[in-house]
Automatic annotation (TrEMBL):
It holds the Pfam family DUF1272. The lineage of its organism: Bacteria, Pseudomonadati, Pseudomonadota, Alphaproteobacteria, Sphingomonadales. InterPro entries: DUF1272. It comes from the Bacteria. This is DUF1272 domain-containing protein. It comes from Sphingobium fluviale.
């Protein structure tokens, strides 16, 4: 199951699990759309491809909440 990290690792933008606009690599490193574009859709941490992160809503989100651990080092 995806960790659903709550923020962009590059700029700190909030990325709620129930909203679009997040991009992840195979290690679940997470970036906002603007940062993913600036990185040419390559993860700044591992060099992997950044793809749209699916959303998690309703009952699925309630029973499997998103992570609260922040990765932005700002």
């Amino acid at each position: 199951m995806l960790e659903m990290r709550p923020d962009c690792e590059r700029c700190g933008l909030e990325l709620p699990a129930d909203a679009g606009g997040a991009f992840i690599c195979s290690f679940e490193c997470t970036f906002c759309a603007e940062c993913a574009e600036a990185l040419d859709d390559r993860c700044a941490n591992c060099g992997g491809e950044l793809l749209d992160r699916p959303t998690r809503r309703g009952k699925a989100l309630k029973e499997n909440p998103a992570s609260a651990v922040r990765y932005y080092k700002g």
